[in-house]
Design brief:
By secondary structure, the chain is mainly alpha-helical. Helix 5 packs antiparallel against helix 9, helix 7 packs across helix 8 and helix 8 runs antiparallel to helix 9.
Length: 194
């Protein structure tokens, strides 16, 4: 490897580290202020950059937001073929240990339902994928009909709605809402004969 190649490799590694640092800071700022209240200047300040320096890595606030969302999904990624119904309770337990990330996700999800929000397309695509994955997980567990008679495609949006709805309730009153327990209760309801 030549000196120039080593220098280029070092610059690339530093740039990737800086991007990761910016994404973590953006996640924190969005969790505190929401997307609309978060500014590039606030994110730049947290990582010791000027706003121009931040724009070198992320040319717009929208680009930064999408990168934050994609990064967050990478942290939780499990290949679709490896998901099992019993892992959902574990995922919810894990989320209960990451309040800031759940708060950021929930705030962005809520804001994204407005027309023109830069995360709207991300969440629309994400929910299409998640519903499809949950339908496959339910199909692997129960076949073409759940014990109560629903098809996996009909039950999948309910399962996703329960998980995301519980997050909102837990964020508002964590002492009153046992997210993992409630998800397990719902899975028992899905398994119950009709």
């Amino acid at each position: 490897m030549s000196y120039g190649d080593r220098m280029s490799s070092t610059r690339t590694a530093r740039s990737q580290e800086r991007r990761a640092e910016i994404l973590r800071a953006a996640l924190d700022v969005i969790a505190e202020r929401g997307y609309r209240g978060a500014s590039l200047a606030a994110v730049a300040e947290r990582v010791g950059l000027t706003q121009q320096g931040l724009l070198h890595h992320f040319p717009t606030k929208e680009a930064l937001l999408v990168a934050v969302l994609e990064e967050r999904d990478q942290w939780d990624s499990v290949p679709s073929s490896q998901w099992r119904l019993d892992l959902l309770g574990t995922l919810v337990e894990y989320n209960a240990m990451r309040r800031g990330i759940v708060q950021t996700f929930s705030a962005l999800l809520g804001e994204s339902v407005t027309e023109g929000h830069p995360a709207r397309e991300f969440f629309t695509r994400r929910y299409t994928d998640v519903r499809g994955t949950m339908a496959e997980v339910l199909r692997a567990e129960y076949g073409e009909r759940l014990p109560g008679g629903l098809t996996p495609e009909r039950a999948a949006p309910l399962l996703v709605a329960v998980m995301d709805g519980l997050q909102y309730q837990w964020l508002l009153d964590p002492e009153a809402v046992d997210m993992p327990g409630a998800v397990r209760d719902f899975l028992e309801l899905l398994a119950a004969e009709g």
